[in-house]
Amino acid sequence: MGSASKAFNNMLFAAVLTASMVAVVVSGFQFEVGENMGWRKPTGKEPETYNEWAARNRFHIGDSVHFKYRKDSVLVVSSADYLTCNKSNPISKFDDGNTVFQFDHSGFFYFISGQPGNCESGERLIIRVMHPSEVEAPELAPSPSAGGNSGWNSDNWGPPGVISSSIKLSVVSYFMTVVAALCVMVCLFV
Ligand SMILES: *[C@@H]1O[C@H](CO)[C@@H](O)[C@H](O)[C@H]1NC(C)=O
């Protein structure tokens, strides 16, 4: 093949690599609130509360939570209104049954149900979105699985260094995969 097609391949390589880098930075993870059961008034037989679920997860800026519900609503409220289940002055209110809420900053987000009595029964959720400085923890964990059960709970909002390292590792391995795949493609066609 001529040098023109080589140049074209190099350009293609650069373009695809750039696009995949942008995709990683921009896209967030979408969490499913309540997993299979969705957003509803707890019966008390659930394996965990909404906040226990939230405590098991790490939320980053750009991530979102998906609420699936029927005859219910999602109110974003202040911490004071969360504590008292006060539904009278929400920051935002959603009742379309299928709500995706994206985190645009770090810190705490408070969600309660707008149905009478539901918040009081445990249909409420606190999510803490990690600050970027926590995500860029410098040390690398020996294994991504090391942080599986790290004693993280609603009383302990300490920085999850091990988990953020594993996220960094997975981003690195994603890039290695993309780069390797592209090298193979370019080598085949040159
Ligand atoms: C709920 O909040 C509103 C506005 O802040 C307040 O006027 C009301 O008294 C509160 N209701 C309860 C039950 O605390």
Automatic annotation (TrEMBL):
<keyword id="KW-0449">Lipoprotein</keyword>
<comment type="similarity">
    <text>Belongs to the early nodulin-like (ENODL) family.</text>
</comment>
<dbReference type="GO" id="GO:0005886">
    <property type="term" value="C:plasma membrane"/>
</dbReference>
<feature type="signal peptide">
    <location>
        <begin position="1"/>
        <end position="28"/>
    </location>
</feature>
<dbReference type="InterPro" id="IPR003245">
    <property type="entry name" value="Phytocyanin_dom"/>
</dbReference>
<dbReference type="InterPro" id="IPR039391">
    <property type="entry name" value="Phytocyanin-like"/>
</dbReference>
<keyword id="KW-1015">Disulfide bond</keyword>
<dbReference type="InterPro" id="IPR041846">
    <property type="entry name" value="ENL_dom"/>
</dbReference>
<feature type="domain" description="Phytocyanin">
    <location>
        <begin position="29"/>
        <end position="131"/>
    </location>
</feature>
<dbReference type="GO" id="GO:0009055">
    <property type="term" value="F:electron transfer activity"/>
</dbReference>
<keyword id="KW-1003">Cell membrane</keyword>
<keyword id="KW-0336">GPI-anchor</keyword>
<protein>
    <recommendedName>
        <fullName>Phytocyanin domain-containing protein</fullName>
    </recommendedName>
</protein>
<keyword id="KW-0325">Glycoprotein</keyword>
<keyword id="KW-0472">Membrane</keyword>
<dbReference type="GO" id="GO:0098552">
    <property type="term" value="C:side of membrane"/>
</dbReference>
<dbReference type="Pfam" id="PF02298">
    <property type="entry name" value="Cu_bind_like"/>
</dbReference>
<keyword id="KW-0812">Transmembrane</keyword>
<keyword id="KW-1133">Transmembrane helix</keyword>
<keyword id="KW-0732">Signal</keyword>
<dbReference type="InterPro" id="IPR008972">
    <property type="entry name" value="Cupredoxin"/>
</dbReference>
<feature type="transmembrane region" description="Helical">
    <location>
        <begin position="171"/>
        <end position="189"/>
    </location>
</feature>
